[in-house]
Amino acid sequence: MSIIAVNNLTKYYGKSRGIVDVSFQVEEGEIFGFIGPNGAGKSTTIRLLLSLIYPSSGSAAIFGKDAIQHGPVIRQEIGYLPSEVFYYERMKVIDLLKYSASFFPGDHTARMHELAEYMELDLGRRIDDLSYGNKKKVGIVQGLLHRPKLLFLDEPTSGLDPLMQRKFFQLIREENQRGVTVFFSSHILGEVQRLCNRVGIIKEGRIVEISDIRTLQQNNYKKIRVAAGELNPAYFAAAGVTDLEHANGVVRFFFKGDINTVVQQISSLNVTDVTIEEPTLEEIFMHYYE
How high is the pLDDT of residue 187? Predict the structure, then answer.
């Protein structure tokens, strides 16, 4: 079942482009990565799905219901961590979280304390005494305390130190194993590669690729390194070869095509070392943006 279904979603701010004809689906139980640089349209897409802003055209459904018409009902089952967190500064953390919890049915006190302990968040502190990283922790607890079925994360790790980032990723994996569907928006590609099943790449407001990460790597170019004593780099200058470099008896290049042709070329050489690697998500991403 598709938890999120987006069809030709478009948003203009006056004459300024937000997103244009964006279409994708997110299946139940997956962690879907949504990547692009700042200004590509990631946050606009999330705000449209949450009906915080309204589309110029197109449609979006969450849990099979129109995201605009049924926004208040849908949001009961959604957790949201925005890229920037702003709060009532004079409140204590615990009062803010209790206030947030009051919008959802049930008693969420135990869950709130459990998450705060896990994230090493002092509930007795005042909001205006917190660092940016600790305010982000408040947002994480706030987004998860009502046990949502769908979680929107918009640049979630900014402000968190590396150890807390690791704990946060573990928390998200545990939520996902519990059945929570996660929409993970980021420009930090290593995070997406580590966490997500599938990824959508957005460029200047339009989707340029949607694929599972493994397929994206396999169908893209390979990184090849060949070490041999006497090696003329021109030997590898052929169709599908790019970024050919040669230094200290080592040739490096990218290759896209039938890998057997390169393997046959290499087999006729007296090599000391060969490495064939799949590209990282970051390298694939740069391929779309260059």
Answer: 83
